[in-house]
Amino acid sequence: MSDGCIELRDAMMQRIRAFFYERDFIEVETPIRLKIPCMELHIDAEPSGDYFLRTSPEIFHKRLLAAGYERIFEIGKCFRHGEFGPLHNPEYTMLEWYRANADYLDILADTQILIQAVAGISASTWQKITVSEAFVKYADWDPIGHYDEDRFDLDVVEKIEPALKALGGPVVLIDYPVEAAALSRRKPHHPLVAERWELYIDGIEIANAYSELTDPAEQRRRFEVCAEHRKVLGKTVYPVDEEFLRTLENMPPSGGVALGVDRLLMLMAGADSLDAVLPFR
Amino acid sequence: MYSASDLKKGLKIEIDGDPCMITNFEFSKPGKGQALYRCKIKNLVTGNQFDKTYRSVEKVKRCALMSRDFTFSYIDGDNYVFSDNETYEEALLSEELLGDLKNFIADDMKVEILFHDDRALDITLPNFVEMEIAETEPGARGDTATNVMKPAKLANGYEINVPIFINEGDTVRIDTRTGTYTDRVSKG
Description:
Chain A is of the alpha+beta class. Helices cover about 35% and strands about 25% of the residues of chain A. Chain A has one domain: BirA Bifunctional Protein, domain 2, CATH 3.30.930. In chain B, a hairpin with a 2-residue loop joins strand 2 and strand 3.
């Protein structure tokens, strides 16, 4: 661990909380142990007795949005099985915030101001590139309408991320193929595109945001496709979370984002591995 | 077979029949995508280095490497011939594979040879060998400082730096791992 990282984290946490309090967000706490983890193709939950540890607080934040809470944030530990590397730790700190009657672009504006306030990176330095533009430019194909999962993932790691690193600073990769939408909604009039963005700073993925999907029927279909796919891969298949699907019926249109706090701290410390900022790793 | 998640730095694997070693390894997981294992790999036969990314569903072949003890017997053209200490089977290692190590091989030297199937890949000599200095400028009498070095040649022409007090005919100890002078064994 680098010198001063404990103090740097403390200062960062204070600035993050100040940012949200100034904007009338309320800090919430949601369960860490869940009966049904959120089903995503490549995210595996850590079992904990009869429960699972959360991979994200997303499900409960959406229940709070449905219950009328319009600006909420949470900073807490999340857990993902088997993820370990310079940029991964199976237990890590996530910042999530959601706004009712907002979309992914409103959340992008929040994120720019937050990053400026916390990390001192000016919002004017941000670059934005669509997934389609980035792939055509750096990988010679367009995944929108021609999605191929393996090719997409490999090219992100081998071509796109190195290119974003070369661009330097904050780059927003925006408008994903609908097949990689996860829990985001389709773009109006562009059914092949999902309203999702990822923030990269110096080529390192920092945050993932959506205009949230609020259509229970489409969400059910996505869960079912995902369950089938997980079964084929030999992964644990989680049951469809019926309570969550009912929640979506009452959820206002919303935008939300998850931001990796440890990675942001790593960047602020000028380090290239989480080893430098996680004292007990 | 290894699963991609078993891969790590230093692991030996087989690719297209060749033994390879993972020299650098990084876990990667883009966005909501699948786990990817980015490796830098060295082909242990050709020495070529290359990058390869494995997906978590991919399987990687194990590489069976085995070390056996041999004794140096003779030189046959460009090949150095060693005999197995137990079976007396002969193993031929090319001058090219031996590289600089060929300069330190002496009669009846005990060595360890690393095989992939029946192919010799690498050789380990004793850490230290004693060799006679064949050629060097005369040493300054009484100067036993070890930090002033001068060039010298072994009988086989290998050039090495030795302290200034070493003379022709002296026997010195050489570290085969670095190819450098260690100390003087006896005066000539």
